[in-house]
Amino acid sequence: MPVSENGTAQEVAAARVLVGSASDFREGDRKLVQVAGRTVGVFRVEGRFYAYENTCLHQGGPVCEGRYFPKMTAVVTGDGRVLGEKYDESEPHLVCPWHGWEFDLRTGEFCGDRSKKLRSYTVETEGDEVYVA
Ligand code: FES
């Protein structure tokens, strides 16, 4: 078990929460876990894990319980006419279920102001087990 410079092995173990096994965590899955009294959403997107506190920056809604899908972009002609919209698969967005604020799922950034971010957590894998630290 790794021990940081700031704590004993027990303290480090207490700071990590088992989310589940990676093999049971399919692409697109999410799980909510309790970490030090806070609810944290853990997502598997494009083979990577992301974890954020389940508290929206707007009014504290359960952001990690919202839907996520690719960013929606407008299709605009050279002369400024909008032809429609399409998904941009390069940027998954998490949408808060209360009022629709959108966050970049890979960074936690609020899409309306990239200087604001959801509180993120480190996700560690050890063998087939996934932990939030
Ligand atoms: S609380 Fe999340 S959008 Fe309002």
TrEMBL record:
Ordered alphabetically, the record's keywords are: 2Fe-2S, Iron, Iron-sulfur, Metal-binding
Query: Which cofactor(s) are needed, names only?
Result: [2Fe-2S] cluster
- One Pfam entry name: Rieske
Show the InterPro entries listed in the entry: Rieske_2Fe-2S (IPR017941), Rieske_2Fe-2S_sf (IPR036922)
PROSITE patterns linked to this entry: RIESKE
Q: Which SUPFAM superfamilies match?
A: ISP domain
Q: Does the keyword Iron apply?
A: yes
Segments forming domain Rieske: 17-132
Family recorded in the similarity comment:
Belongs to the bacterial ring-hydroxylating dioxygenase ferredoxin component family.
Q: Know the name of this protein?
A: Rieske (2Fe-2S) protein
Organism per entry: Actinomadura yumaensis
